[in-house]
Amino acid sequence: MVVANDPLAMLLLKQDVETFLYHEANLLDDRRYEEWLALLTDDVRYWVPMRRNVKFGELEREFTREGQDINWFDEGKDTLTRRVNQILTGVHWAEEPLSRISHLVTNVEIVDATPSASNAEGVALRCRFIIYRNRVATETDILVGRREDTLRREDGGWRIAQRQVFLDQNVLLAKNLTFFF
Amino acid sequence: MAITFQPSAYSGLVDHDNGMVSREIFVNSDIYAEEQERIFTRAWLFVGHESQIAKPGDFFVSSMGEESVILCRDRQGEIHVFLNSCMHRGMKVCRYDEGNTPIFTCPYHGWSFATDGALVGVPFYKDAYHEELDKSQWGLIRVPRMTNYKGGIWATWDENAPDFLEYIGGFRTYLDILFDGWDGAEGGTEVIGGIEKWLVPSNWKFPAENFIGDRYHNISHRSVDLVGIGPSGQGRRDTRERDGARALDISFPERGHGTIVFLRPADAQPVPSYQNDPVIADYFYQSEIARKERQGQLWRIMGGPGTIFPNMSYLPRQPRSIAVWHPRGPDQTEVWRWFLVDKSAPPEVKEFLRQYYIRYSGPSGLTEQDDMENWNYAHAASRGAMARRHHYNYQMGMGYAVTDFEDGGLSIPGTVLDVTKARAGEQNQRGFYSRWADFMAARDWDELAGWRNNGNGSAC
Ligand code: FES
Ligand SMILES: [Fe+2]
Question: How many angstroms separate the CA atoms of A129 and B454, rounded?
């Protein structure tokens, strides 16, 4: 947590950030993918590691490494845009018919605000998510985990500059990851 | 552990001559249980790669069929595969995915096993066992046959199984493309860190028969072709090198393995590829030239997807990887995916491939997401009482394959269906399922090694 030397500013910032996160989640769940893409900075980094069972004391090896190992996702805007475009072809069978998805975003904490809470141009935050996905008839996945986001103010609004997703699964229990965290 | 069975009634569910296979073999739980006995305890199975256990004490927990096994390098540097179940009362000895350890200590009552499997520690050995327990008899169960072929570690539970090289036979030519370096250097590959593991609600044979060479399903990948994820930003792959090549489907029906390849013309020269980045373009171009020098005519064979019977599949070129389809019940498969790069490749090349592998493959891959959708719902729609009465159709290209395919002085190992004009065929699937029927029918490896009697020789 940032030092709350200005509690009121922190409260307002948190409100501002949460409003943004809920809006973002709504865009995804409403399938407004192109509007969602516009919320990502051009240099966005999107990373979802895989997660191993390792011995106590070796927890630094629990997650696959960004930029070095195979990860579920480790990419920027170009590949994310292609993912959106693939869904929009209407013949991406893994998302045709489209899934029904709800993102629940919770436990939001502001970790850092620069240069200050009252005047923030950048925010680092931590939150939890539950993604409920139901598709075709009875196919259902529930994915839960932690998210660490970095937001940057651009053109008067928040943009996502970095998203790190730590899923609480080892063997992935979903057959695919056709949605966005 | 030589294993003998009575022939199963189920072997008749494959009608090879008419190109039909009963849906029962995909959905019936009795048949699934017999497969675990007759196929997965007798066949050679892929366990892991030596680069995952480079140092003494390194281990990687893998799976053979449904069962957990430990792949481990002991203190002397020797590689072993053990059943991951305590000899005392069955506890899973190791519940980590990988690591390094001097000893495996069972969490239940504390028996401990050295990295060579020997039982070395028994709590209360003196007072409670009166030193009468013969520790030499209660080490971890070792998989009796194991081999390291060009870095790939394979194992089988059947002591009477043929050597691995006899098991793959002439398929070796194609498997080598996977494990050798891009320039043809023997065993020149290593695994990138991070093994993908995920569940697909489908019988394990759907992906195995897809990877054995299903050119017909190209159409299901239309969405990814439209958006383009290939190494040069288009399509799924970099395919200029295929210009002018013949398309061949290759099966070894007496062994069950199969692959598809592209055969360059006799006068072909390496073509530049991956041209968005000069370092990467140069690496692949120079590697092709080196491979051509090393291999001569064989260089003309460009590998495509393949399956080694029963459940190891691979892509030798793009995106270079291994998939194992672990059976988890008739209706579920746990997929494990390893990704390979040339050990000696510059960091830029490894990084470029890593990114390409991620966006192509597995649950987050733009290509394979659509494959899994098809396996999922083909399986689901085949389970009903009415659906089961109707066989699947594998009749494409029946009667057009040859066993002596030759092109410009190069003879191609295996039974070859030339699909250059046809664009697709199903002989590889027919070969896979007739081998499946052999495994279900055969009493033992004397019967399974049919090639020894038909003058086909172990080298074929
Ligand atoms: S089950 Fe392992 S020590 Fe008892
Ligand atoms: Fe496919």
Answer: 62
pTM listed for this prediction:
0.96
The H or E element containing residue B34 is helix B29-38
Ligand 1: residues with CB < 6 A are B 86, 88-91, 106, 108-111
Task: Please count the structural domains in chain A.
Answer: 1
Q: What is the helix (H) or strand (E) element at residue B192, kind and residue range?
A: none
Q: Give the CATH number, domain containing residue A134.
A: 3.10.450.50
Which domain covers residue A99, as residue numbers?
7-55+71-167
Predicted confidence (pLDDT) per residue in B247-285, tens digit: 999 999 999 999 999 999 999 999 888 888 889 999 999
> B197, A170: Cβ pair inside 8 Å?
yes
DSSP alpha helices (H): ranges in B276-367? 278-295, 347-360
Chains A, B: CB contacts under 8 A, how many?
A: 126
By C-alpha distance, the chain B residue nearest A85 is B227
Q: Whose CA is nearest to atom 1 of ligand 1?
A: B89
Domains recognised in chain B with CATH numbers:
45-145 (2.102.10.10), 170-452 (3.90.380.10)
Q: What is the mean pLDDT, run by run of 10 residues, along chain A of 181 residues?
A: 76 97 98 98 98 96 98 97 97 97 98 95 98 97 98 96 98 98 98
Rounded Cα distance, B451 and B460, in Å? 8
- The alpha-helical segments, DSSP class H, found in B150-277 are 164-168, 172-179, 205-211, 222-227
